[in-house]
Amino acid sequence: MKLRVLARLLEIQRVLLRHGLDDFVRATHLYRPLKFVFLLSPGLWLARRRGSNRGERLRLALEELGPIFVKFGQMLSVRPDLLDPEVAAELAKLQDQVPPFAGALAIEALERAFKRKVGELFAEFNATPLAAASIAQVHTARLSDGQAVVVKVLRPNVAALSARDVEVLYAVARLAEAYWPEARRLHPREIVAEFEKTLGNELDLMREAANAAQLKRNFTGSPLLYVPEVYFDLCRVNVMVMERIRGVPISDMATLRAANADIPKLAKNGVEIFFTQVFRHNFFHADMHPGNIFVLIDDPANPRYAAIDFGIVGTLDPRDQHYLAENFLAVFDRDYRRVAVLHVESGWVPPDTRVDEMESAIRTVCEPIFDKPIKDISFGTLLLRLFDISRRFNMEIQPQLILLQKTLFNIEGLGRDLYPDLDIWNTASPILRDWMRERIGVRSVLKSWRKQWPDIVDAARVLPGLLSHLVQRAQSGSLKLQVEAKDIEGLKAALRASNRRRDAITVGGVILLCGVFWLMVHRSPEWVGWVLSVVGAGWLLAAWRRP
Known about the structure:
alpha+beta
C-alpha cells in the first residue's frame, strides 16, 4: 500500500476521532491492522468535539474529509428510514449548505478562465455564494440584457483532492478482493472505476452543460419537468452559466402546502419522470437529491418539477434496458418465476441457478410489500433481504447499473418525504406498460427500419459481389477460415506459470519442513535447522506472491 494512501487512512481516522466518532473507527474493519494507533491516539483522551449531537458531528467530519465523503453523506440523507431522524436532518444540510470558499477565489477563477474582468462578463455579479456543494458553488449574476443567471464554479483543487480519495478507494477495493470472499461477486474495483468515471464527468462543467441541453431537449413541451437554459458562450471546464429559476425547494413542504400545490400529483409525476428518463429517453438525471430539485407553482393544480446540477447522468445498454423493463413488469404482475428466469438469461446469476428456488426466495421478499403505500414499506429491510438473496444465489453486482440503483434510491426517498401514501406499484405499472407496447408496436418497428435503411441498402449493394467472390474461392479450394490462437496461447502461458508457482511452493514447503524437523529432533548443529526454516519460509513467501 502506498505511503500517501496509508497517510490518508490515518487522516480519516484522526478526523473521525476528533469529532468524537470513536464508534465508527471501532466498527471499521479496515483499521484492525492499525489498532495500536487507534488505542494510542491522543483523540481518545484529549478534549474532542462532543458538545454537538451525533448527526452534526458526522456532518462536520464528512465536510472536513472532502468531496467524496460529502457525496456519500448526500446519498444517505435522502433515506431517513435508514438513519436516526436527527442524523438524517443534519446530513440533509450537505445537499446545499456545505461551507463555501471565498468569493474572491470564484472571481479569480472566472477571470482566469475567460481572460476578462468579471465586470465585462456580467452586468452584475454577487461575490457572496447562493449555495455551496461538494464539487462547486454557485453565485447569482445578471447578463447585459438583464437575464438573471447563476454561475457555477468548481472548488479550488477539487480535482486533486478527489483523485487522492479515489486512490484510497482503489486501495480498499484491492484489500477487499484479497481478503474478502464476497469480493468476487461484488466487483469492488469495477465499482470504484465506475465511481471514478462519474466523478470525472462532474469535474467537467462543459460536459454538465451538454447534459443539461440534452435533458432540456428531451422534455421540450412536457408539463413534467423544466430544465434551465444554458449559456454555452459563458461555459468552460470549470465554469457554467445557466438561467436562474425561482422555484420552491422540494423539501420545503410547508410552502408547497401553503400554496395549495397538488402534492399527490407531484409525487406521481416524479415516478413518471423517472421511468420516462430511463426507458423512453435512455438518458436520466442520476443525482436527484432534494438539493437539486425544485417545484414551479405558478399553477398550483399542475405543479412542475425543475432540476439543476446535471453533472451525473446515466444511460443503459439496450440489453440491460430490456431486462430491467421485463423485470419490473414481472414484479408488477407477481410473476416471480419470470423474474428468476430473466436473471439467468441476463447472466446476472450463474447459468446453473435453480430457477424454482430463486422464484421462492423472490416471492418471500416481494409479497409482504405489495399493495402497500410507500410509508408502510421498510426499504431498508427490503434491501437487506435482497442482498441476502443475491449472496445466496451468487448474484454478481452489475457496475453499469449502479447509477440507476442510486437514482431509484433517491426517487424512493423523495417520494417518502413528499407523499407517503403513494402506491408506487400502481403508479409505475401503466407507465412502463405503455412504453413496452410502443416499443414492440408496428410504428416503432417501422421507425427502426427507417433509421437502419441506409445500412441495409449499402449491405444489399455489396452482397452479390461478396457472394460471387466466396463461391469462386470455394470452388477453387482457396477458401480458408482463419482462427486466432491468442486466447489458447494465453491459457497455455497461464498454466505454465501456475505449474511453476506450484512447484516453487512445494520446494519451499519441503525445505521449511526439513528445518522444522531438524529443530524438533534436536540435531546438531542447531543453526542448520534455523537456516533451513528461514530459507523455506522465504521461498514460500516469494512463491506465494509470484503472479
